[in-house]
Design goal:
By secondary structure, the chain is α/β, with parallel strands linked by helices. The chain is built from seven helices and ten strands. The protein has helices spanning 51-58, 81-91, 107-117, 124-133, 149-162, 179-194, 209-212, and strands at 9-18, 25-35, 40-44, 66-71, 74-75, 92-96, 167-171, 199-203, 215-220, 223-224. It has a six-stranded mixed beta sheet with strand order 6-7-8-3-9-10, sandwiched between helices. Strand 4 and strand 5 form a beta hairpin. Helix 3 runs parallel beside helix 5 (149-162), helix 4 (124-133) runs antiparallel to helix 5 (149-162) and helix 5 (149-162) packs parallel to helix 6. The structure holds adenosine-5'-triphosphate. Residues 18-19, 25, 27, 45, 47-53 line the site of adenosine-5'-triphosphate (ATP). Adenosine-5'-triphosphate (ATP) binds next to strand 2 and helix 1. One of its GO terms (cellular component) is membrane protein complex. Residues 9-226 form the ABC transporter domain.
Length: 226
């Protein structure tokens, strides 16, 4: 008998509010969600609907007030800070609108940083293969300030992929890029799913997401729209 693979993400009745009294905002008002492994999900919806809050809670960057979140069968709600930090570093990949690269490090050093922080020797052959694939082979010694926005985002994607993460979380990954460069980044994220079997969850306002995602989760007023 084979055991079914657990969902890449399982969220049960997640609540997260900000502020108190009249200023109280229910950013997440009972969100339940299941994401299958090896799929591309886009979280969309109006400004203030809770997309970023949801992504941050799913990725263990923010803690919900109540509810449960599991990633690949591991419950992350209730983990302590250091366990959660290690979980994010070892099991998740992140791609942000603002790239979040360390400006004083080269592209190569940025790509291998999570492995180094985890005390692992980076797989240099894998770094070379990723750099070739992402068109970064001649850019590895450059610092982020010497790279275009699209190149910086590709460095962030290489960094995310190198760790073979259970889930890659992307927060407005095309928000700072022109149309053509944004298309390239969306295609690369799609390729992380199709070629590498990764699970990608992306928050975006970008209507082109519909062309690459397997599923659109629409948020309205802190809830997943039916
Ligand atoms: N740190 C915070 N303090 C207070 N309120 C917050 C905070 N972060 C978010 N909120 C509120 O929670 C709600 C959801 O915010 P969130 O950023 O998740 O929405 P969003 O859908 O990602 O919006 P956008 O598309 O504009 O980025 C909003 O009403 C917002 O004002």
């Amino acid at each position: 008998m084979t055991h079914a693979q657990p969902p890449a993400i399982l969220a049960r009745d997640v609540h997260r509010h900000y502020g108190a009294d009249e200023a109280r905002v229910a950013a997440l008002d009972g969100v339940s969600l299941e994401v299958a492994p090896g799929t591309f999900t886009a979280i969309m919806g109006p400004s203030g609907s809770g997309k970023s809050t949801l992504l941050h809670c799913l990725a263990g960057l923010d803690a919900p007030d109540s509810g449960e979140i599991e990633i690949a069968g591991q419950r992350i709600t209730g983990l302590g800070d250091s366990a959660l930090t290690a979980f994010r570093r070892d099991r998740l990949g992140f791609v942000f609108q603002s790239f979040n690269l360390v400006p004083t490090l080269t592209a190569h050093e940025n790509i291998v940083l999570p492995a180094r922080l985890a005390g692992r020797a980076p797989d240099e052959a894998a770094v070379r293969r990723l750099a070739e694939r992402l068109g970064l082979a001649s850019r590895l010694t450059h610092r982020p300030g010497e790279l275009s926005g699209g190149q910086q985002q590709r460095v962030a994607i290489a960094r995310a992929l190198l760790g073979s993460p259970d889930v890659i979380f992307a927060d407005e990954p095309t928000g700072a890029l022109d149309t053509a460069t944004g298309d390239d980044v969306l295609a690369l994220l799609r390729d992380c799913v199709d070629t590498d079997g990764r699970t990608v969850v992306m928050v975006t306002h970008d209507d082109r997401a519909a062309g690459v995602a397997d599923r659109i989760v629409r948020m309205v007023d802190g809830r997943v729209a039916a």
